[in-house]
């Protein structure tokens, strides 16, 4: 089949995933080398299962070959007498160590990657497997089997592996090729403005790709969008077409309501990022649900407020109570009396935000008005601008100190939603007492959501550079964010760490961050995956200041946690972590560089980043490696980075497999969750 130029041009821009990792130490003894090889081969066989959605045959074939290597090294380990191995065998074993590490990376990548992405890259990944087979064949040709005194059954297995590797050919799964052709056909249909047949779409996505639920389809879209956002992607328009197809399949096959639970689980994101509704014709206008009576579900003509603070259309709630009901239909709370309070302010004037006048009415009316403004400010810059122009910000500011938890929560959330519009940020910061009131809610808000949304408001406001220092200088602000990061819910910690990240970008805020204990809290947050990325980013920014570098360097957990994040984090988290360690070395001097260089497994982590990290992460990793090598501690850790770097230039190549020129590099890091 004819493959798009997208594949080869994209691949040529990327480093090989399966290359440049797991280099053995220079000073390993023969017995230690054999033990290390047995351990690594065992890891590949036991921890990496051939469960990838695609490349199953290639994965199984490679694992079966590694099992034979495992039997070889287990025999040598158990029968080792102390005699030195032949130098040619030692050299060959070190190359096998590299090959095993590359094999593990490739197998993990296939097991954990996006299904659609694996399908798009099937030729390139198949080429990687073929390359490994050819290297196995080459290594076994030069391995001095006769000098190793192997048992007959072990020698027979190695000779069988040698014959298999010589005969191996590139394998492209015809099932995957057929699926890929159908993906191309769907994209072609969409490009022509036609909708793909729903039954065929289901066959490909549900039966072929095994994407059987909305969350799995969303994960596919998220993964592909992450690739679209990388700097080095070529032919980006093609990949955008694939993303569009995945989105279309998600909503066509699983519906718009499939993510209801997921959306409700992140209320602030819904309020901040919900897109405006599509334009509708005059005859199709649908009133917002906030303006509809919860009883009749129709637009309220004469809205009134009952004693619980809920709003209903007068005729509907009167009929409800006349039928003998004594509880609030919406909240279930008892109705202590039947008095109804009319909405204050009547119909809004031209240019006034709905419910704006009600903010000067009774307490119950203010609470309802703040809630309606909060909901109206969710969607669209036009709404946010109109609400601010109508004078709502000073009135909402007064409600921040309300003893009513609902009033306080609705007012701070309304201000959060208004702050999304850039020009509203200046009005909020210019309003006397508004910043201090927001901080007061953060410190002692009456509900958890109020405190969390106050933190989110500071994050939104701190996007303006001049406001970062104003926020950090506000008494109690940084301390309260630090406390929320330490002890808040997962959502609260996320709000707090993003606000601290923004504040960290201002150089004048460094001393305040140290004094408040924020640096210590950020180091602790490195252990929590939900906030580790932002915490590492904030630390990297702070450590550009010598005082912050010294303070963070005194934290015992800082170096090991940053190093650990380099191994397990997202691509951006790994980038931040290596940048933080680099700044720590640059500002902390020789003693700190020595401490960083002694971090367990740092050499292997740097090697992996050099070949699989983002462009910036690779640059930072190279700089950090040079600093650590100058410290003369690299040999203790067995990094052998010069060997890694020199080898990297020779392992990237293209081969002619009888199907045209096919590049054999696999892009992106392997930290993608199992889908």
How many strands? Answer: 5
**Percent strand:** under 5%
How many helical elements?
34
Uncertain runs: 1-22, 256-285, 344-352, 633-675
Q: Sheet bearing the most strands, described?
A: 3 strands, antiparallel
Provide the residue-averaged pLDDT. Answer: 77
- The rough form would be described as globular
- Report the radius of gyration as a whole number of Å: 31 Å
> What structural category do the secondary elements indicate?
mainly alpha
Spatial strand arrangement across the major sheet = 2-1-3
What is the helical fraction, as a range of percent? 55-70%
End-to-end distance, in Å?
Answer: 28 Å
Task: Write a structural description.
This protein is mainly α and 675 residues long. 64% of the residues lie in helices and 2% in strands. The chain has a three-stranded antiparallel sheet with strand order 2-1-3. A hairpin with a 4-residue loop joins strand 4 and strand 5. Helix 4 packs antiparallel against helix 6. Keywords: Repeat, Transferase, Ubl conjugation pathway.
Pick out its properties.
675 residues; mainly alpha; two-stranded antiparallel ribbon; 34 helices; disordered N terminus; disordered C terminus; transferase; RING-type E3 ubiquitin transferase; RING-Ubox_PUB
């Amino acid at each position: 089949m004819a493959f798009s130029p997208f594949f080869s041009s994209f691949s040529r821009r990327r480093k090989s995933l399966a290359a440049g990792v797991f280099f053995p130490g220079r000073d390993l003894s023969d017995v230690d080398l054999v033990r290390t090889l047995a351990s690594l081969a065992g890891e590949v066989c036991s921890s990496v299962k051939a469960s990838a959605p695609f490349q199953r045959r290639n994965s199984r074939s490679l694992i079966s070959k590694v099992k034979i290597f495992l039997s070889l090294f287990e025999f040598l380990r158990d029968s080792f007498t102390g005699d030195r191995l032949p130098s040619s065998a030692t050299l060959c074993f070190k190359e096998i160590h590299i090959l095993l590490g590359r094999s593990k990376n490739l197998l993990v990548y296939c097991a954990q990657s996006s299904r659609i992405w694996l399908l798009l890259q099937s030729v390139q990944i198949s080429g990687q497997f073929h390359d490994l087979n050819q290297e196995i064949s080459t290594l076994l040709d030069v391995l001095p089997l006769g000098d190793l005194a192997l048992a007959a059954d072990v020698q027979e297995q190695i000779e069988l592996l040698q014959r298999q590797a010589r005969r191996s050919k590139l394998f492209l799964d015809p099932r995957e090729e057929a699926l890929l052709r159908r993906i191309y056909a769907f994209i072609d249909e969409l490009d022509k403005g036609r909708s793909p047949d729903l039954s065929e779409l289901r066959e490909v996505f549900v039966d072929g790709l095994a994407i059987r639920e909305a969350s799995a389809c969303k994960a596919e879209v998220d993964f592909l969008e992450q690739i679209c956002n990388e700097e080095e992607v070529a032919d980006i328009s093609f990949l955008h077409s694939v993303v569009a197809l995945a989105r279309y399949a998600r909503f066509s096959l699983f519906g718009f309501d499939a993510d209801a639970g997921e959306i409700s689980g992140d209320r602030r994101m819904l309020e901040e990022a919900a897109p405006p509704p599509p334009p509708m014709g005059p005859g199709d206008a649908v009133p917002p649900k906030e303006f509809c009576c919860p009883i009749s579900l129709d637009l309220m003509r004469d809205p009134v407020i009952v004693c619980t603070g809920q709003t209903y259309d007068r005729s509907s709630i009167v009929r409800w109570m006349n039928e003998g009901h004594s509880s609030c239909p919406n909240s279930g709370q008892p109705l202590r009396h039947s008095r109804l309070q009319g909405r204050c302010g009547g119909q809004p004037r031209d240019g006034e935000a709905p419910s704006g006048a009600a903010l000067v009415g009774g307490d119950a009316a203010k609470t309802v008005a703040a809630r309606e403004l909060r909901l109206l400010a969710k969607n669209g810059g036009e709404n946010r601008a109109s609400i601010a122009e109508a004078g709502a910000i000073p009135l909402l500011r007064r409600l921040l100190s309300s003893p009513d938890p609902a009033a306080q929560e609705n007012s701070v959330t309304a201000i959060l939603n208004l702050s999304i519009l850039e020009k509203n940020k200046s009005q909020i910061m210019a309003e006397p007492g508004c910043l201090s009131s927001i901080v007061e809610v953060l410190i002692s808000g009456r509900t958890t959501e109020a405190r969390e949304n106050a933190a989110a408001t500071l994050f939104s406001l701190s996007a303006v550079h001049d406001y970062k220092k104003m926020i950090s200088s506000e008494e109690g602000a940084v301390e309260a964010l630090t406390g929320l990061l330490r002890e808040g819910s997962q959502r609260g910690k996320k709000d707090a760490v993003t606000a601290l990240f923004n504040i960290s970008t201002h150089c004048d805020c460094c001393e305040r961050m140290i004094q408040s204990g924020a640096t210590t809290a950020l180091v602790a947050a490195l252990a929590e995956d939900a906030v580790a990325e932002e915490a590492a980013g904030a630390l990297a920014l702070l450590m550009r200041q010598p005082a912050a570098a010294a303070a963070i360097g005194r934290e015992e957990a800082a170096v090991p946690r940053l190093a650990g994040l380099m191994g397990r984090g997202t691509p951006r988290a790994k980038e931040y972590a290596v940048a933080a360690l680099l700044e720590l070395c640059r500002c902390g001097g020789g003693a700190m560089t020595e401490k960083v260089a002694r971090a367990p497994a740092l050499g292997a982590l740097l090697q992996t980043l050099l070949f699989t990290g983002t462009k910036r992460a690779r640059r930072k990793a190279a700089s950090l490696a040079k600093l650590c090598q100058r410290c003369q501690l690299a040999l203790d850790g067995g990094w052998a980075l010069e060997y890694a770097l020199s080898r990297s230039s020779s392992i990237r190549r293209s081969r002619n497999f009888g199907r045209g020129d096919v590049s054999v590099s696999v892009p992106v890091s392997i930290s993608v969750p199992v889908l």
